[in-house]
User: Which sequence fits this backbone?
């Protein structure tokens, strides 16, 4: 196959799609408005989730033909903080997540960039993509949720801590990850985004009160936003393919999207090569995303005591097993999702793009 494919966007999904197509003998150009790779990410820790599917996330990458040769720190322990000053240690036998760096150097992004160059992909950095590029991988179209982050260096011992306090971070949570002297602190929410700066300030003080004083050096402020819309396909009516956040692909419960982004790259690359797998798309993208709509509805209605109860429950068993049970698609989850989607449907016009079959109404 000698066809040429142009990809708009050089993030995870764009580069992964490029690698998989180039290995099939297709000539690929990737247009990235950022230089050096890494896009909007500045070297902080991000999560490659491992608690929505029984298969390990790294094994899934291997199944795509992408041998994971990037730094990925398995997460088996964490500290949960509740609204009443309680601390709860959670653990799992198998990793419930992998921590990966996102940004230009020593990151998941730079690994994919290296694979793309090795496969013969042409990278056009600092160049606007043609309007008719065959693959769109340009990131979120609108903010359905946001996070404010601080990336820093520190002498803090390796720490994974998450704060669940709906009075402080309504519809979200705060997190502090410090691994190997590299720290990332942030607050993420999907509603009441105007309160993020204040929530960030209060959460920072809460973490330092629990963890003690620790050095903060070379700090850099970052902001992230995420979008979520349920795609009907990865190919639009005009024939263009969409992958990752450009397709609206995101976990709606915790706002995690790296694994889904890479999954859509595999599906789209196969589709472009003439082997679109509709049942696999439904089972691995649409149905898991639908399940997170129902769990998100419940999440936003939990009070402080209910979250404290969740933290206690998470500390009593295997945390990955708990995540798999909470997020497993099934008949009950599908039925609940249908009800929630009917109540939450956006009726004033969708801004997510041509693939959207459902999105949540915008905040008033």
Assistant:
């Amino acid at each position: 196959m000698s066809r040429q494919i142009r990809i708009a966007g050089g993030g995870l999904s764009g580069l992964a799609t490029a690698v998989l197509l180039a290995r099939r003998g297709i000539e690929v150009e990737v247009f990235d408005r950022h230089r050096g790779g890494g896009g909007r990410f500045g070297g902080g820790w991000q999560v490659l989730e491992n608690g929505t599917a029984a298969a390990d996330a790294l094994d899934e990458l291997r199944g795509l033909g992408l041998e994971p040769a990037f730094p990925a720190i398995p997460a088996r322990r964490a500290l949960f903080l509740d609204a009443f000053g309680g601390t709860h240690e959670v653990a799992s036998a198998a990793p419930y997540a992998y921590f990966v760096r996102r940004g230009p150097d020593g990151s998941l992004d730079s690994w994919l960039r290296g694979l793309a160059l090795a496969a013969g992909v042409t990278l056009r950095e600092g160049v606007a993509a043609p309007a008719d590029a065959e693959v769109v991988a340009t990131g979120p179209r609108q903010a359905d949720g946001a996070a404010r982050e601080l990336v820093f260096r520190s002498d803090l011992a390796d720490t994974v801590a998450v704060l669940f306090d709906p009075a402080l971070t309504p519809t979200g949570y705060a997190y502090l990850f410090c691994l190997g002297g590299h720290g990332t602190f942030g607050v993420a929410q999907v509603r009441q985004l105007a309160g993020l700066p204040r929530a960030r300030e209060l959460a920072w003080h809460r973490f330092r009160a629990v963890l003690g004083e620790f050095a903060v050096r070379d700090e850099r402020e970052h902001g992230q936003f995420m979008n979520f819309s349920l795609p009907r396909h990865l190919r639009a009516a005009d024939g263009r393919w969409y992958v990752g956040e450009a397709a609206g692909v995101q976990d709606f419960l915790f706002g995690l999207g790296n694994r889904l982004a890479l999954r859509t790259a595999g599906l789209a690359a196969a589709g472009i090569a003439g082997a679109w797998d509709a049942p696999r798309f439904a089972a691995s993208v649409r149905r898991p995303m639908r399940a997170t709509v129902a769990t998100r509805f419940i999440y936003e209605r939990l009070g402080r005591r209910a979250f404290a109860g969740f933290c206690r429950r998470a500390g009593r068993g295997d945390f990955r097993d708990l995540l798999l049970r909470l997020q497993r698609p099934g008949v009950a989850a599908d039925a609940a999702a249908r009800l929630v989607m009917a109540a939450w449907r956006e009726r004033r016009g969708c801004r997510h793009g041509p693939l959207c079959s459902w999105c949540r109404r915008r905040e008033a």
In short: The longest strand covers residues 217-226. The two ends are 50 Å apart (CA to CA).
